[in-house]
Write a structure and sequence with these properties.
Elements: H1 7-21, H2 29-40, H3 54-70, H4 74-103, H5 105-120, H6 123-126, H7 130-145, H8 151-165, H9 171-184, H10 186-190, H11 200-205, H12 209-213, H13 216-237, H14 240-249, H15 258-275, H16 282-285, H17 291-311, H18 322-337, H19 339-357, H20 361-366, H21 368-392, H22 398-412, H23 435-456, E1 462-465, H24 468-474, H25 486-490, H26 501-508, E2 517-521, H27 532-541, E3 548-550, E4 553-557
Parallel strand pairs: 1-2
Antiparallel strand pairs: 2-4, 3-4
Helix pairs in contact: 1-5, 1-22, 2-24, 3-4, 4-5, 4-7, 5-18, 5-22, 7-8, 7-9, 8-9, 8-13, 9-13, 9-17, 13-14, 15-21, 17-18, 18-19, 18-22, 19-22, 23-24
């Protein structure tokens, strides 16, 4: 039977799933934080603190501007942002496909489609987070590095540098791209990968030094280093306050003892296996793999793990690279193991549907380690079966199995995208969030915000004591460079921030007479956490005895 290219149909199926499942989903609250901060500040993007580094603020503004131009309300704005996420990821996938056609033509389609699926289908809860943007850029950078030299690798290196400085702890994400380029380019210039340390000197003697300097990984690395240095120089000379903000904001990170930190790390890993079933199948997928494949997959997972550990925070979006890595590994595993692994993978997909949509948060939290243990046993079973079948069977028909694996990668990511699926299995706060939940909560939030803006006038400047989604819902301008007042919000919660220059600057804007009302979410900025001096400033400037209430929001007029 003649081979017909199934990938256009797989891409079409992927786009239909994404359009149906993610485009109607409200944006995550963290992204609304960013939108609200940009929208209400009377200062430029660079002069406004939003708890996101400057490069991410610049990139987001590039996408916010057309979204505002193409929409007249918040619902339309969010739909446009979802569509732009599809376009952004699609361009990255196209760059990867085009570059890999020059290096590994048989794997170009399955790997690029699997990567795009890993970017888009889990995007309801992670799209536009700095970690996600870094993964999209890294995917694009790998493809660019395989375009004709030197332009392609230079462009790839610049993209890697942008990914690295999005959040600074996203540097390991960019290193995933360089690792992939290095190992995929290994054979032409190094020959056989050294099996032991004794073989390393011989391998080095075989190197063609001239050719080595022209390798894509070297060009890309140099371009990334130069770009990173230029960016740091710009920060120091043009936006020096950004360095202060970054250093002071780092003191907000919680300090956790080794025991609780380790437990949270493994819990998040268990969450990733349940949310993105391909992660549970990575050990099975690597059975019989070449050393290069193992190095790329394992090295990528380790690097993708590092940002979460560095931040000492445990939110699923910190592992935004995991579904991409898992989907790619699954393609390689099914090509080796055959259709049985595809059938075995569907068990995890069905399990994820049940776990994410049919089990209440209290049950999931109470039995989290039992659920994780079940997924670990499932993963171990996959390894045992894959070992037996890979040894027992002849080489599979790679093209058909590659297509099957690519389609499977799409199917396994559908559970986490369902409207009823939680954006995290147990990790707070996403364990409570789903598309359906967000739709219900946002109706109340946005209606309250619209009512406040209508009552006081949409152009009246206000001071916000609330998270970014409140700022986004109200939308009135503010003369505070800290629209969400996140430093004030932390108060005595994170005592290391109290003596910082940024905390002092945040307090100053509480006295700015141009802000005519205080819009206060007392669940976010809790009075009992605040130093007495902060509440004295609030009392001096605003009369909360004359406040009016809308939902969670209290609105106090200026005295």
């Amino acid at each position: 039977m003649p081979w017909r290219n199934p990938y256009p149909l797989i891409v079409l199926a992927l786009l239909i799933c994404v359009a149906v499942l993610t485009v109607p989903a409200p944006l995550a609250n963290d992204i609304r934080y960013e939108i609200g901060t940009h929208a209400v500040s009377q200062f430029g993007v660079a002069q406004t603190f939003s708890h996101r580094p400057l490069m991410h603020r610049f990139i987001m503004e590039l996408f916010f501007a057309p979204s505002y131009a193409l929409s007249s309300d918040r619902i339309g704005f969010e739909i446009v942002m979802r569509v732009l996420a599809i376009v952004f990821s699609g361009l990255a996938g196209a760059a990867l496909w085009y570059g890999m056609r020059r290096r590994l033509p048989r794997l170009a389609s399955p790997i690029s489609v699997a990567a795009v699926a890993g970017l888009l289908l889990p995007s309801s809860g992670v799209a536009w987070e700095p970690d996600w943007v870094a993964v999209v850029l890294t995917v694009a950078g790998v493809g660019l590095c395989f375009l004709p030299r030197p332009i392609g690798p230079i462009a790839g290196g610049i993209v890697f540098a942008v990914a690295a400085v999005l959040k600074f702890v996203t540097l390991p994400i960019a290193l995933i791209g360089l690792l992939a380029v290095l190992l995929l380019e290994e054979r032409p210039w190094l020959g056989t990968w050294p099996r032991t340390l004794r073989e390393v000197p011989d391998a080095l003697r075989r190197l063609d030094r001239t050719d080595l300097l022209l390798r894509p990984v070297i060009i890309a690395t140099l371009a990334a280093i130069v770009t990173g240095i230029v960016w740091l120089i710009l920060l120091v000379t043009v936006w020096p306050w950004e360095i202060t903000w970054l250093l002071d904001a780092s003191k907000m990170q919680p300090v956790r003892p080794l025991g609780p930190k380790t437990a949270l790390s493994f819990e998040l890993l268990g969450n990733s296996m349940i949310m993105w079933p391909a992660i549970a199948l990575v050990p099975a997928a690597l059975v019989g793999a070449t050393r290069i494949e193992k190095a790329v997959v394992i090295g990528s997972l380790v690097l993708a793990w590092i940002p979460m550990q560095l931040q000492n925070q445990f939110f699923p979006y910190h592992l935004a690279a995991f579904p991409v890595i898992g989907s790619v590994a699954l393609v390689l595993g099914v090509r080796r193991g055959g259709r049985w692994l595809a059938a075995y993978a569907l068990i995890a997909g069905l399990g994820s549907v049940v776990a994410l949509t049919m089990i209440s948060p209290p049950v999931r939290i109470a039995w989290v380690w039992a659920f994780i243990a079940a997924w670990v046993l499932y993963a171990a079973g996959g390894v045992l079966l894959q070992r037996r079948l890979v040894r027992a069977r002849s080489a599979p028909a790679n093209r058909r199995l590659s297509a099957l694996a690519t389609l499977l990668g799409v199917l396994l990511l559908i559970p986490v995208s369902l409207p009823a699926a939680k954006w995290s299995f147990t990790m707070d706060p996403s364990r409570y969030f789903s598309t359906n939940y967000s739709l219900d909560v946002n109706k109340s939030l946005l209606s309250s915000g619209a009512a406040i803006s209508s009552r006081i006038g949409p152009d009246t400047p206000v001071l916000y004591f609330g998270f970014g989604d409140l700022v986004y819902a109200v939308g009135n301008p503010t003369w505070c460079k800290f629209p969400t007042n996140v430093f004030v919000q932390r108060g005595q919660w994170e005592k290391p921030i109290l003596p910082t220059a940024t905390y002092a600057d945040n307090l100053k804007c509480l006295d700015d007479p141009r802000n005519k009302y205080l819009v206060w979410d007392s669940d976010y900025v809790t009075e009992w956490r605040q130093p007495p001096a902060v509440m004295a400033i609030v009392e001096r400037n605003f009369d909360c005895s004359e406040a009016f209430q809308y939902g969670l929001m209290t609105v106090c007029p200026r005295r």
